[in-house]
Amino acid sequence: MAEERRQKQCSVSLPTESMKAMAESVGVGQLQEESCTALSEEVSYRIKEIAQDALKFMRHGKRRKLTTSDIDNALKLKNVEPLYGFQSQEFIPFRFASGGGRELYFYEEKEVDLSDIINTPLPRVPLDVSLKAHWLSIEGVQPSIPENPPPAPKEQQKVESTEPLKVVKPGQEEEGTIQGKSQGATAADGKGKDKGLIRLKPRSTHELSVEQQLYYKEITEACVGSCEAKRAEALQSIATDPGLYQMLPRFSTFISEGVRVNVVQNNLALLIYLMRMVKALMDNPTLYLEKYLHELIPAVVTCIVSKQLCLRPDVDNHWALRDFAARLMAQSCKTFSTTTNNIQSRITKTFTKSWLDDKTQWTTRYGCIAGLAELGPDVIKTLILPRLTIEGARIKAVMEGPVVSTIDKIGADHVQSLLLKHCASVIAKIRPQPDNMEQYRTDYGYLGPMLCSHVMKARTQAALQAQQVNRTTLTITQPRPTLTVSQSGLSGSAGSRTPSIIKVPSSLTLMTPRPGTPSQPSPPATKYIVMATSAGASSTQQVITLSSSQSASPVTSTVPSATSTLQPLVKLESGSGPGLTSSRPMQKYIVVSLPSSASSSLESKSSVLPTSISSTSLEATMKLDRSESPGASTQSPH
Amino acid sequence: MAAVQGGLADTNEEKDIKTEPSNDGFGNNNATDGRVLSTSPGSSASAGINKSAAGAPEDQQTLLAVLQFLRKNKLTESVEILRREAGLPEDSLELKGSDSSGAGSGGAAGSGDKEGGDASALLSRVTISSSAAAQAPTKAAGEDQPDVNVVLSAYNQQGDPPLYQVYYSGLKKFIESVLDCHRAELSQLFYPLFVHMYLELVYNNHESEAKAFFEKFSGDQECYYEDDLRILSSLSKREHMRGNETLMDFRTSKFVLRISRDSYQLLKRHLQERQNNQIWNIIQEHLYIDIFDGMPRSKGQIDAMSGSLAGEGKREANKAKVYYGLLKEPEIELPLDDEDEEAENEEGKPKKKKPKKDSMGSKSKKQDPNAPSQTRIPLPELKDSDKLDKIMYMKEATKRIRLGPDNLPSICFYSFLNAYQGLTAVDFTDDSSLIAGGFADSTVRVWSVTPKKLRKVKSAADLNLIDKESDDVLERIMDEKTASESKILYGHSGPVYGISFSPDRNYLLSSSEDGTVRLWSLQTFTCLVGYKGHNYPVWDTHFSPHGYYFISGGHDRVARLWATDHYQPLRMFSGHLADVTCTRFHPNSNYVATGSSDRTIRLWDVLNGNCVRIFTGHKGPIHALAFSPNGKFLASGATDGRVLLWDIGHGLMIGELKGHTDTIYSLRFSRDGEILASGSMDNTVRLWDALKAFDDLETDDFTAATGHVHLQDNSQELLLGTYMSKSTP
Asked: Where along the chain is composition biased (Basic and acidic residues) (chain B) (predicted)?
């Protein structure tokens, strides 16, 4: 593999097209192919050289990540002026633009209004460097405190539980050698022992120190105690503390026993507390619960499907507990289900079986459906939707039939809303529009009409979300509008700001050929907004809105113009990215012309005007997409 | 101008020199100065030179070459000075001049450009072979900053470019076919041959052939050369060869191979049979084959020692006697009664009793036969405060628990919060009372980790007011108002890469990307001196354990020895082929060790500036060095994640500690040298049983004479503990 990589190294060099693009950016129009090749080789070599030097600085900076300052320092070594203004801790977002059969990646240079910067309040002073000490090891033993990594990392716990034979604990290995040494009379003896040692699966012991026992007592008491603040603290501790690995078996026993006892006593509050503990354990990033699922899952399932969870089923909200537990179940299915333990399919089978049973109580029925529904849209589609009609009939029988107990009625009511809630979004995805009331009735029986209205609601909601999603992706992929300022005349009598503030970004000139020839077959969805402002004699400034609907806040730039001549400002914007509407070519020219008397009072208006126009224009294209996009965006990965 | 050169050759050279205008001349000047400095230790400047001039004819040859060069560049003044310094007669230069002019005119007899190149090639060979004639080609001044053209022209050889592949694969086939015991040894040839053949192709503008050659054979090279190959691969044009330091190193220095006589004979016979002049030429000119008698080495033995940029160290280079013993502890009137605790309360008021002679004392009283004489280099006298420190240290030493596998130390871990990856260097004082950190934002920060806060000394005006006779004058001079837990020192203009406390905790050194080393006072918290000498980033600096001296090393590949009261370096240690990445003083202050990106460690004698040890074996830039407290051993850590242990006296690798998976940035021995701790980028701290590592060695059958190491893979046994820290993003 290394060889392959090495062989590749040999041939990597910048493409000649890049050379051309760069040449154009500095005003060299036609570059010979040969010069391009020569340049690209030279440039690639120099870049590699600089990168290698920059690596040195990274190493001496004791970092793994190469930063821009490393490159700067490497340039300084070569006696080259560093690139100023590329101070970035994180990655530098390169923007992508394509057009005219070319693809460009460029660094966006935003126009910055200095007055904005001056006027904004100073950012918070970053925290000063400070020292914090902790014990990494006390006489050779690493204490398990939050500052230290967990004694058994999650991966190891996982390996331990899934592949028990492979386990080689680094810690135990060392202990083994140490013991071997101390036991062996001489060093040579010890060596021989180590070599001859047959590696057995280490017996995992879970001995608790006194501190840990105290901690365990405190935590469990707080978790089921009456003080809510204490409980929150305890749960927080369970969810974050890295040293709980040793206590895990006790916690799991505590929970399973607790559920067993409290279900019998119908103690809803305690059951909720215990489920919250399960949640906290699952949230702890350092714990891997697989080994303890045999205790936890029955407890959780009990809380989902138990016939009775509280003393007064008509008043108490045991439904919430079922929902919560169902979510926990789904989460553990997602995390721990493997082909060997088959948790998900076993759970699904259990739920389905009791759901199908006609004699099942409404409470259990609710739990089963909730449990299944939480497992995801696929499960809903295959297991719940086909039974909607039957279930609808049953609900109808309770709702409209002869008098039954209120408990049944409440149960049926909850089941109905649960079904509507979960099924609507799934149906919205799989059923084509339009939503017809009658059609729904024939398809889904009693629940049909209600479903229909829910589905419609779901659709509008999804559309709204999709729009937001689209918008965010747009701002990422879409290159920011760029601006070329061509000033016909310039006099030095500008107000406080001199025109030199506006710097034409070098990347801009790359694009200048395009606005000049807008009629050429241009790439899809490219939008040009051309705005011309004619400055009156009195006006000194115009504000031109540079951004379109996609960017959250319109970027405004102030162009000082002390001249009385026209100042055409051309704004070019390459449209909504390649990924979105590649099939629909769209070109738009918006020419906004401000009257010459436009003075500062108009500034705000002018900044609003083009924004609204472009936003509506884009909206149209987006709406078309909407029907597919929510499906894509909400499809949960499996 | 004595040297009347053959016309063509001369003009050719002149022209080429002009393309690199002042650089060369200046560089050479510098190098010359450096040499003069480094060989003139205070008293016997000219004596040393005279000796070397008389003793080693090859030295004289190189001097002549330098003289000639200077003369050609019309630097008559320098010529005069150098001649006087070296004590050379004027006519020797004439002789040399006519010598080379003869060579030049010989070349000029032909015609055309090629001949011109030939002539200069010949000329260069004269210079190189003159130094190579004898077995020890010392790094001469002339070769430090070689004339680019002269060096490059060594490649200007004819040879059918497409045949290179044939030659190489022919040799490859041959080596693969030899007996196993020779194969490993001869395989060492692959890498240097590969590099030189590739460079030759590039130099002669056979770009596509070079690429094909690289692609075909680069995969065969040992994986630890990958970094070099990467540099090599990017180089495909003759123009690139100028100014590429790595490549320049390759050409100017001979790659050293250690091969047994049998294997060498085998190779020689093969090459002669095949008339394979191309390869033979390269071997003759660019390789140095250190032939030894006896059994060929195994693959493992070879791998352990190879990996450096210029092959292994020559055995001769590691033969010099090193006085690695510790200096005798100065006699200090000790307050006795360490046995009873009361003495603790009365420390500082030395009770005059008989001088203490306990375990510590008795050991240091006897002069170690391996120790340098007390006055080998002048050391600063102990101050009263130093004596107090020493007393404290000894007292604590008696109470110390002996560490070992059963008594592991505790590790206190300091995290720098909100540093945003900006922390680049750290140092502790020996008594763990202060921590200093160098940051990428050019600041140096000092923290007190004891309850005692950091205070500045009062201003001069205020100092006048205090009563100088009072007992607590040392307290009174401090300005209470400035007490704080940490202080920031501003002065550098680039990331601070090296930092070191003085042993008496009064000073702090910091070295930075801006090319300076700064000395800070920890009394006033101001910068006292900025030592300018390195023109490039200074990667590391370290105070001598006796104070006063310090060493710095940087990107300019030179390590410099300074004294705090001199603004110019006392010694310049040049010889590394790449950046000097870390520097450490030997506990007896007579030697310094430098680690480098060329993957070698060198030990330098402070007295005469000589390189006395070259350790090769690391496969990556060296980033950490530590001397064992008894001065006998050296531990080094590199980007390859291995810790190597070296016996200084014998000049041998004695151990390899594998376990880390990333660069090792810090190494430290426990005070009695039982345990070695290493910290690495893989977020672990590991403890190693140093005692055992060194013990095993003594029982081993020691092959000091041959220098062949045989390392047993016992890292797992030596590893006493691994402590993960959280990796903070």
From this structure: 12-21, 357-368
User: For B86-131, what is each residue's pLDDT tens digit?
Assistant: 766 655 544 444 444 444 443 333 333 444 444 444 444 434 433 3
Contact across the interface for A10 and B231, Cβ inside 8 Å: no
Amino acid at A603: E
pLDDT of residue B156: 54
Specify the pLDDT at position B427. 93
| Residue in chain B lying closest to A176 (CA) | B717
pLDDT at residue A539, rounded to an integer: 38
> With contact defined as beta carbons under 8 Å apart, do A175 and B406 qualify?
no
Q: What is the token pair recorded at B79? A: 């010529």
Which pLDDT belongs to residue A287? Answer: 81
Taking only residues 343 to 382 of chain A, the set having a beta carbon closer than 8 angstroms to any beta carbon of chain B reads: none
For residue B633, count other CB atoms closer than 10 A to its CB: 24
Chain A contact present for B368, CB below 8 A:
no
- A62 → closest Cβ in B449, B665, B723: B665
Interface size, chain A vs chain B, as Cβ–Cβ contacts under 8 Å: 181
Whole-angstrom distance, CA of residue B136 vs CA of residue B338? 54
- Return d(Cα B195, Cα A326) in angstroms, integer: 66
- On whether any CB of chain B is under 8 Å from the CB of A584, the answer is no
Taking the Cβ of residue B537 and every Cβ of chain A, the question of whether any pair is shorter than 8 Å is answered with yes
Interface test with A, best of B233, B237, B446, B512 (most A CBs within 10 A): B233
How many Å apart are CA B97 and CA B88, to the nearest integer?
14
Average pLDDT over residues B513-525: 92
What does each C-alpha distance from A427 to A326, A386, A389, A484 come to in angstroms? 21, 12, 14, 50
Nearest to A363 by CA among A333, A323, A390, A393: A323
- Low-confidence residues of chain A, pLDDT below 50? 1-9, 166-196, 470-638
All structural domains of chain B = 159-297 (1.25.40.500), 423-724 (2.130.10.10)
Average pLDDT rounded to a whole number, residues B708-728: 79
Cβ of B723 under 8 Å from any chain A Cβ?
A: yes
Q: Three-class SS of residue B303? A: helix
Has residue B52 got a pLDDT over 50? no
- Provide the angle, in degrees to the nearest 10, between the axes of the packed helices A210-224 and A248-264: 30
Among the partner residues A10, A63, A132, nearest to B421 by beta-carbon distance:
A63
Beta-carbon contacts of residue A278 (< 8 Å; ≥ 6 apart): A255, A296, A299, A300, A328
Q: Is A148 on the interface with B (CB under 8 A)?
A: yes
